[in-house]
């Protein structure tokens, strides 16, 4: 309501006083109102505030609506108020400078993580692995780099085109990368799920189950966690347990999880007798 009231006042004053047309307050007010309207429309189909940058931007936009101009422009202020406004005016660029200084060292690792992500998306697993390795050599605080390093190694492993020594190395690298990522960000269920898959690929059933149990504690309502639990049981030949997991996924929903579950159920039908199953990817 403050933004709408400010729009009415600013537009009315602009029509009366030519000097007001030289001010950017009305333009900022219209832009901020438009941004809030777009946010409200988008919020009907998606939640936006889980991203810190989105929350930061919306807080700035709402601040513009709450105070479209300096109080001294419309009414006289006390000396203490003037001092406070001057202090706040200079504190904002200082905060921006501090944020820039804090963020500058992270640019390189974010760039390398993005290159690794794009390469992996395009099916270039070795290129993705090389970019991620380059990042983790110097930056040990970016969990995304460890995720893409582990995921690229895991995908290369599951392609099955490696020599025995390379297979062992990729297995170890995938396990170690996801473990390192969890040390940086221990609340990422995605890293925990992938850690379980890597442990299963290395043949360590106990460690795989421990990892998937940890992922379930982080995200107890995730159908994807249940799907990967089924994958692990399937990989080690526990078809009855895997079938229960996959059937549970069907009731929980989730497009990616359902694809995995249906693939697993089809695999169980093909391996109804005891044998060495393949690890689904």
Description:
α1 (2-16) runs antiparallel to α2 (25-43). It is elongated and about 80 Å long. The model is unreliable at 17-22, 70-74 and 276-281 (pLDDT under 50). It contains 13 helices and no strands. The chain has helices at 2-16, 25-43, 52-66, 79-103, 107-121, 125-136, 143-159, 164-184, 189-201, 205-218, 223-235, 239-252, 255-270. With 281 residues, it is mainly α.
Write the layout of secondary structure elements.
Blueprint: H1 2-16, H2 25-43, H3 52-66, H4 79-103, H5 107-121, H6 125-136, H7 143-159, H8 164-184, H9 189-201, H10 205-218, H11 223-235, H12 239-252, H13 255-270
In short:
The protein is an all-alpha fold and 281 residues long.
Q: Proportion of β residues?
A: under 5%
Radius of gyration: 27 Å
Structural class of the secondary elements? mainly alpha
Assign an overall shape.
elongated
The ordered H/E elements are HHHHHHHHHHHHH
Oligomeric form: single chain
Quantity of strands, as a count: 0
**Poorly predicted runs of 5 or more residues:** 17-22, 70-74, 276-281
